[in-house]
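Here is one chain, start to finish.
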Amino acid sequence: MSLNVEVHAQNMSVDDRLNDYVTTKVSKLDRYLSDIDVARVDLTYAKNARDANDRQVAQITIRGKRFVLRAEERTDDIYSALDSAVDKIQRRISRFKGKRARNRGDGTSVADLAADAMEMDQLEQIEDESLPEVVRRKKFLLLPMNELEAIEQMELLGHQDFFIYYDPDSDSINVLYRRRDDSLGLIETEIG
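Its structure:
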């Protein structure tokens, strides 16, 4: 069975050559991880990038029944951005498979607790110009996990700044975040 590859573009067009290149490169990922349901590739031309060398963005998201892995790369060429993103996702798959193999002893794994994020449509512009504009909204499925599993999942997904998860021990939604000194912080929420 061939891997289902979805190609999406923003602020750029995808010709047949680029589409074939993306499909060929990404469809090979099922050699490394056989239980991938879908691979989504988002290609973006970032008009407002700080550096002209970071305008071409390739993001690959692979989803399976109990996992989500993501990699993103930015360069001045969409083909090299895609190649780098494929390399990065292959490394993440390798790390993920190692963690899953180590966790098989007790029947649970970090993958069983992965949060599935679905991107929502952009909101209409806020009428009050004094407030910042919300330009993207995401919905997260919060699965129960402990702090260590959340740290591992944060690393697997490549979220550098923060990760949101549900902690069943404290019955709270927590936010794990990376501090400026590269250590981690934890916000434990409570309803007041």
